[in-house]
From TrEMBL:
Family note: Belongs to the flavin oxidoreductase frp family.
Nitroreductase domain: residues covered: 8-159
Keyword tags: Flavoprotein, FMN, NADP, Oxidoreductase
Protein name stated in the entry: Nitroreductase
Keyword RNA-binding included in the entry's annotation: no
GO MF: oxidoreductase activity
Domain of life: Bacteria
Organism: Vibrio xiamenensis
Length: 240
C-alpha cells in the first residue's frame, strides 16, 4: 500500500547487530519521532534514558536475564513512567493513583513504538527488553531514578546482523470484534497453533516443537514478577 505500512508489516525483533554505530542525525530523528507520539491529555509522562556507559550496559544485560544484545547494541534506551517533573512543578499532583500508572505505561508504549518504527524505516532494527523488570529495583538504582519515576522496559537499536523469519500473528478475526465481544472459537486457535508449530519447527534458530497455546500457557500459568506491585508502590505509584 505504502512504505509506512510495508515497514510495519515487515517488523522483526532483531537481537544481533553489527558494530556500526547509529548516526547522531538518525538517533535524533528516532527520539523526535517518539516525542511526537500521542500523549494522554498532553501530560507527557514518559522519560527515556539513553545508556552509553559500558559498565551500566553490562549490568543492565545481567539484570535483564543475561541478554547480551543489551550490551552489544549500538544504542540502548530505557523507557520510564515519569511523574517526578510534574510533582516538582506542583506538589498538589497525585501520582499515586493507578489510573496515572496506566496512562504512563500506555504513553510509554506508544512513544516507544514510534521510536522503533522510525528506526526500522531507516533500515535499523531493534527489540524490546521487558526483562529489565526482572530486577526493577536494581535497574532503578543503577539509573538513579527519583520518586514517582519507574522503569518499564528497554529497547536495543542498531544495524541488523540477522534477518529472522516473520513470526505469524493471530488472525484479525480473532483479535478484532464488532460491537461486542465475540465468543471464543477453539478452531481459530487450533488453526493458529498449527501455523506456529510449523514456524517454530522450521525457523533458522531456536527451533522447537511447540504451539502458541503451549507457550502462552507456560508463560501465564505461574507468577509473573510478583515484586512489581511493591516496586511501583515504593516509587509512589499505583497505590490507589
Amino acid at each position: 500500500m505504502n512504505s509506512v505500512i510495508d515497514t510495519i508489516l515487515s517488523h522483526r525483533s532483531i537481537r544481533q547487530f553489527t558494530e556500526q554505530p547509529i548516526e547522531k542525525q538518525q538517533l535524533d530523528a528516532i527520539l523526535q519521532s517518539g516525542i511526537a507520539a500521542s500523549s494522554s491529555s498532553l501530560l507527557q509522562v514518559v522519560s527515556v534514558i539513553r545508556v552509553t556507559d559500558p559498565k551500566k550496559r553490562q549490568a543492565l544485560a545481567k539484570y535483564a536475564g543475561n541478554q547480551p544484545y543489551v550490551e552489544s547494541a549500538a544504542e540502548f534506551l530505557v523507557f520510564c513512567i515519569d511523574y517526578q517533573r510534574h510533582y516538582q512543578m506542583n506538589p498538589q499532583v497525585k501520582p499515586e493513583f493507578a489510573e496515572l500508572t496506566l496512562i504512563g505505561a500506555a504513553d510509554a508504549g506508544i512513544m516507544a513504538q514510534n521510536c522503533l518504527l522510525a528506526a526500522e524505516s531507516l533500515g535499523l532494527g531493534g527489540v524490546y527488553i521487558g526483562g529489565l523488570r526482572n530486577c526493577a529495583k536494581e535497574v532503578d538504582e543503577l539509573l538513579e531514578l527519583p520518586p514517582y519515576t519507574a522503569v518499564l522496559f528497554g529497547m536495543c537499536l542498531g544495524h541488523p546482523a540477522q534477518q529472522p523469519d516473520l513470526k505469524p500473528r493471530l488472525p484479525a478475526d480473532v483479535i478484532v470484534h464488532e460491537n461486542s465481544y465475540q465468543p471464543f472459537q477453539a478452531q481459530q486457535i487450533s488453526d493458529y497453533d498449527a501455523k506456529m508449530h510449523a514456524y517454530y519447527a522450521n525457523r533458522s534458530s531456536n527451533q522447537k516443537q511447540s504451539t502458541w497455546s503451549q507457550e502462552v500457557t507456560t508463560k501465564l500459568s505461574g507468577e509473573s514478577r510478583p515484586h512489581i506491585m511493591g516496586y511501583l508502590n515504593g516509587k509512589g505509584l499505583n497505590k490507589k
